[in-house]
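We include this case.
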Amino acid sequence: MAIQGRLAAMGKLEIPFGVFTLIYTTQLFFTPIFAAFINKIKFNRWVVLSVILAIITGALTLSSSFGGEPDEAEENYARGAWAALFAALCFSLLLCNIQNVFDSYIFKRTELTTRKPSFASVFEVLIFSSLVATIISIVGLLIAGEQDDLKREMNEFSKGKGSYRMVMVGQAVSWQIYWVGIVGLVFSVSSVLSNVISVITWPIVSVLVVIFFNFMDDDIDVLKGVALITAVLSAVAYFFRLHKENRMAN
């Protein structure tokens, strides 16, 4: 988790956000492959269709902007592209390994104790993984000497140190909520659906940013509109597959 976050941040800061998005969308190629081998997930046409539509959705988000985008002097396409690609690879591998933890350990443990798996297992996995990721991130930050950069960033924040701290706390809380959703989907359904949902929310977030923050020169264009449509169709395809499975089971 720590490595994936670091690589993703590096990619965003060294290549334009549109390029990063295109490369980062490759996670939807990696996840089904890992899921097939690690989690033994079987695919049908509805899942394949959902993944394809999600890939299109992620690719169409390239028109969005990002406040930390590098200028031409700061761009490093080689390093940024590799960072984005490996971040996508790590994210896919992380999702599949989380599902493997549920399948191989937590679900089997609950079977032995005659208890049904509960959503508390999600928090159990998330707390331990986040704790390890936090320790690794702090150690890495100290080794790299980036604590001075954080102090300078806080001192130069236009709205003051208090607002900077509030922003950081807000980001931390938001990311935890995000990961509860991601891990919860892995727990409830599969790593593939979790990845699909995580990607198809990109255009929704980009539209909300435009609406509520009037971000930079970003606006709601045709690409965002098409991305929203493909996002809905992707979700419908996957949930239709789940609906069919439930009907067959009953």
